[in-house]
Sequence to fold (281 residues):
Amino acid sequence: MCRLYGFRATEPTKVECTLVYAQNALMVQARGDSEGESHGHGWGVATYDDGRLHVERRAWAAYQGEHFARAAARTFSRTVVAHVRQATVGGVAIDNTHPFSHGPWAFAHNGTIVGFAGIKERFLAAMSDEQRRALAGETDSEHLFRLLLSMREAHPEWPLPEVLRRGLERVGEWMEQAAAGGRPGLNLIWTDGRELVAYRWGRTLHLVERDGVADCEICGFPHVHHAPGIDYRAVVLASEPVTHTEAWREVPDGTLIHVDPDARVRLEPCPGPRIPAGAGR
Fold:
């Protein structure tokens, strides 16, 4: 389907090794994941520089050419979202390539909204005029992103995890009503650069928490210019564990993850739709 990567830290951090050089870096997963499937239909990297979002996307494989490696080498940020795509809904095109963005928001999805063709009009009807006009591609993923942004606009008083929870409940109801076959999945990462929310349902998702500055197991150097007096923390979310020696843990299926601006993690149960989510990836 796709492979996801999300990162949040208390200080700007270089993530080149985990994207390119680690034992199971995102570029390695693009060539072949743990089940031998490739994800060569596009890639994207979203980063923040002094709060300003920058997104680089290409509609070809991360392992083709130098563009992905160069983008990763430039990445030095507190918040990063990266994605390699295996197309399911929507053709191979830049407008269908993740992460999607709008203002400060970046969003990436791994999975499929089953029965999307039959419920697409519900997504459109529930969007604000601004988000409906902003739609650029064909994917179920971008429609989900625009729906969540519309809900955020309508209810700015809701905490971000609550927006995601209610959005997932709505989409889950539509999927149940569609009663379509297929292998549904709602793994996603959504951020404004300060806080990050994610969800696991129907695909694998792992996380690791890092306390304190340490030398990278790949290159042997720390990836942060550490400021004295700051307690460095970082959280990495990934479809598969990226490194071999860190204490990765699998996120339980049907879990909402909230990473606050201080890189503190909270996991909350959030059951998925009442349709078979399948197993494995």
Remarks:
- The helical segments are 16-21, 26-31, 67-74, 116-126, 129-134, 140-154, 160-178.
- The mean pLDDT is 92.
- Residues 2-114+169-269 form a domain with the Glutamine Phosphoribosylpyrophosphate, subunit 1, domain 1 fold (CATH 3.60.20.10).
- The CA atoms of residues 155 and 241 lie 35 Å apart.
